[in-house]
Amino acid sequence: GYAMQSFFIGVGAIVASFLPFILAHFGVANTAAAGEVPDTVRYAFYFGAVVLLAAITWTVVSTREYSPAELAGFDDAEPPAHHAGTAISGPAPWAQVVVWLGLGVLLALLIAWRQGDRMLYVLAGLCAGYGLLLAAARALPATHMLAAIVGDLR
C-alpha cells in the first residue's frame, strides 16, 4: 500500500509539473499581465483539484470500514511467517545492486562524454542511489524498516 501510494504521489507531481507545458502546447495562454497568474497554471491547478477530489471520493466510496469486532480481531492476528525473511534476500538483489549502480555510473559517463544536459545527471544519480539503497537494505536485517520499504519497491 505505502509503495503504491508513494508511486502515485510521484506520478501526480510529475504530471502536475508538466501540465502547464502541455496546456501551452495546445494553445492555452502561458503569459499573463504583471501580478496575474497565467491560464496554464490556473487550469493545471483546477485539473489537479478535480483529480484530488475524485481520488478522495473514490477512496470514500470504495473503502469499507471495519466494525469494532473486526478491528478487535486484528489485535490477535500474527504476521505471516514467510514475510519475515523475504523482504530482500537471495542472489537476485546483489545482481540488482550491480545493475543499478552500473547503470548510474554508465549514464554519468555517457552524459559527460556526450556533453549532455546537466539535468540528466539527476537520472544517473537516481539509478546509482537506488543501487545503494538496495545494497543498504541487503545489509540490514529483513525486519528493518528500510529493508521492508526497499522490498516493496522491488
TrEMBL record:
<feature type="transmembrane region" description="Helical">
    <location>
        <begin position="120"/>
        <end position="140"/>
    </location>
</feature>
<keyword id="KW-0812">Transmembrane</keyword>
<feature type="transmembrane region" description="Helical">
    <location>
        <begin position="40"/>
        <end position="61"/>
    </location>
</feature>
<protein>
    <submittedName>
        <fullName>MFS transporter</fullName>
    </submittedName>
</protein>
<keyword id="KW-1133">Transmembrane helix</keyword>
<feature type="transmembrane region" description="Helical">
    <location>
        <begin position="6"/>
        <end position="28"/>
    </location>
</feature>
<keyword id="KW-0472">Membrane</keyword>
<feature type="transmembrane region" description="Helical">
    <location>
        <begin position="94"/>
        <end position="113"/>
    </location>
</feature>
